[in-house]
Write a structure and sequence with these properties.
The chain is an alpha/beta fold and 123 residues long. The protein contains two helices and eight strands; from the N terminus they run βαββββαβββ.
């Protein structure tokens, strides 16, 4: 159902480097970019994640209550992606672990303060 998610940034180069490395961990690659945004996909028809300088020219800010969830196919991949995010300068917002029945997730904020999580549903 979701086609793409855009996250605001005030430093496009820094954000692009962060997501090149982070999303590279799950096989995503850049597929579109301009001087104001960069977008990644893991599969040609799959959803995309983008970072952008705000169109209105105002500074990017973090949405309170907004979070992007990245689906993983194992708990190990949740652990690995969360660890990679922290290595790249993300802030830990909740170490990977079980969060109720059959839901495993790790939470972090990117260098611009956007909240993301990596999650796996299953046993």
């Amino acid at each position: 159902m979701i086609g793409y998610v855009m996250l605001g940034t005030n430093d496009l180069e820094r954000a692009a480097q962060f997501y090149d490395q982070l999303l590279g961990e799950i096989g995503a690659k850049r597929f579109m970019e301009t001087e104001t945004f960069v977008a990644w996909v893991a599969s040609p028809r799959g959803p995309a994640l983008s970072v952008t300088k705000p169109f209105d020219g105002n500074p990017a800010t973090v949405g309170n209550g907004v979070m992007v969830a990245l689906a993983m196919d194992s708990r190990d991949k949740v652990d690995s992606l969360h660890r990679k995010a922290i290595e790249l300068g993300a802030k830990d917002e909740g170490a990977p672990g079980p969060r109720g029945d059959n839901f495993y997730a790790g939470y972090f904020r990117d260098p611009d303060g956007n909240k993301l999580n990596a999650f796996f549903m299953g046993e």
